[in-house]
Amino acid sequence: MKRLDALVIAVILAASVIAMALLSATRDGADADGLYAEVFEDGVLLRSLPLSEDCDDLVTTQRGFNRIVVADGGVCVAEADCGSKTCVHSGTKRLPGEMIACLPHRLVIKIAGGEAPYDAIAY
Ligand SMILES: [Zn+2]
């Protein structure tokens, strides 16, 4: 009887450890949820890319192009035909409020959210 009790406790402990691990893994995966890379040209919102979904987006304006890549919950400019390439060298941004600016193209990529900008997203 005592051995059975010990076994039951061990199984419950193991199950809760696994449940905790699964929960924290899920939470890690959801870190980027609700965050968006908002792409502005001249202050006009061109698009809003959820950081939770990888994408590779070519933004072309009259001034040139910027290839915006979302991967692993962060956004970066992978390629651009601007002169300075400051935007490309800015690296990956993933925190709310961070931004990448491409002055020659008057393009700003800003990380927004934490709150859901769209009604379709439910928690
Ligand atoms: Zn640039």
Q: What can you see in these coordinates?
A:
There is one protein chain. A hairpin with a 2-residue loop joins strand 4 and strand 5. The chain has a four-stranded antiparallel sheet with strand order 2-1-7-6, with no helix packed on it. A three-stranded antiparallel sheet has the order 3-4-5. It is rod-shaped, with a radius of gyration of 21 Å. It is 26% helix and 38% strand. The mean pLDDT is 87. The chain is of the alpha+beta class and 123 residues long. The site of zinc ion has 8 residues, from helix 2.
The helix/strand order is: HEEEEEHEE
Low-pLDDT ranges: none
By CATH, the architecture of the largest domain is named Sandwich
The fraction of residues in strands falls at: 35-45%
Describe this structure in a few short sentences:
The chain has 123 residues and is α+β, with helices and mostly antiparallel strands.
How does the SSE layout of this entry go?
Elements: H1 2-29, E1 35-41, E2 44-50, E3 55-61, E4 64-71, E5 74-80, H2 86-89, E6 99-102, E7 107-113
Antiparallel strand pairs: 1-2, 1-7, 3-4, 4-5, 6-7
